[in-house]
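Bench log, entry 3. Co-assembly request; chain sequences pasted below exactly as received.
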Amino acid sequence: MSCVFKEFAEEVDHGLIETIWPYYKPSPLSKCSKPQAVLPSKYHSRYGDDVVLRFKIKTEEEALAFAEAADTLYLDVWEASKDWADVRISKKVLPSFLTLLPSSMQQSHTPVITQLSQAVYESYPAPSSNDYGRHRLGKDMPHDLFFENYQPLSVIYPWLRQLASMFPDHTQLFTIGTSFEGRDIPAIRIGTRANSEDSSDDGPRHTIVITAGSHAREWISTSTAAYLLRSLIHNFDPVHQPLIGKLLSHYDFIFVPVLNPDGYEYTWTTDRLWRKNRQETALPFCRGIDLDRSFPYSWDGDYQRDNPCSESYAGEHPLQAVEAQRLTSWAKNETESKTRVFAAFVDLHSYSQEILYPFSYTCDRKPKNLEDLEEIAIGLAKAFRLTSGHHYGVDSACEGSVMLTTPSKTGKQDKVRTKVEESGGSALDFFYQELSVNYAFQIKLRDTGSHGFLLPKSNIVPTGIEAFNGLMGLGKWLLGNRGIEGYKDLSSDDIWGQEEVIINDVSDLNDSNNDNDVEEDEGTWWRRRRR
Ligand SMILES: [Zn+2]
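Structure output for the full assembly:
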């Protein structure tokens, strides 16, 4: 994508933010014309001449060769989808990598990021631009300034405390435990007391759990969780927001926006692209366990056991990762004590724009309520698309590590698992199978690879809005599924949005892109043509 076109696309997003947030002031300088910032030497020494390349993968043989070559050279595979994989690689190592690949793949790569060190440097907020950090908690500052940029832990913790203290009637801040390095893993509960008119709320509290930040570098997941919880808290107004009122009456929402605080902090202080937690391993120079490979259901760490340096290192045994253990024991304690029954679980990640449902560890086994999972996942993708025009794929979570072969004799496409990305021990499978959470999803947020983990801040609010509309759809679906008055007979369009509203111009969005309107006006389910 040319610089000018990219800038145009970003301007569209800027316009979108300005429609909902009048304080937003995008940079007046054109990125295309401004000189590149001088790169501090520490960035070059850490990221060298690394680039990120996307390889097209068409066959099982190519997938296997790619996986083995990446494994041999200890490369960081950023994302792997059905027909492509993004890999970070040094320019110097690229020729060696190509020699390990079949001839059909020699020309199959395109650049995603051509100068990783510069891109990482530019992904951090400039010290003077982070107004929320400078003026935080000041009464005269608009609250949404928090979403002008990605925020470090030193801002997130007090922001959560402030939210909880401002709305004590329906909000409670707590911790699910401490991380390996001793930081709180914050959680926030949003919900009102049980609704007396609904006897089904007498028992354990029905609860929707939303986690984010399991992988440290996926900043958009944490900012999106923050956007969702802030939107629910601020819009709690049963008279004017009956859907939110109903949801918070019948459900608790529990958000864990930074499941991996040590890793997140490390991405701010040392290495923007850190993925795992910061736990010591058997190798002193290779810290970190991948939280999303560490959960006890179908843990398959044996493959990675000898390699703590791997980005997907699952530890020496299930739940060795401290933060995964904390989440697991908190969740088990809540269900075993009959305090809660988990109605839904959503684990936010990035990137690739996909709504994924169980199972992650295998494609050979179908979940028992596959039809419901598919219906909701398709609905979520529809809500995202109608909100912003961004298309999200829907699939089983196992598919990320599966490549399609050429058609077999039966005419079907055989699927063969590769090792491009190990996928046992996921939070998704654990909540679905071991905690019997019937509606469990992993959502990989923006983008589809233009920036990958280094997603520009201009995406924070739009991604939050599309996820909020998805969450409201999920809420309506759950209310209807429980037979709650006013929601039990909703059609798919009622739940996820209607296709009729077509908006061709960003200027048409002024009144529709407002999460205050979600309940009252189906016109909020707008869409823009895909750009
Ligand atoms: Zn992730």
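The first helix runs from residue 3 to 20. The chain is about 35% helix and 20% strand.
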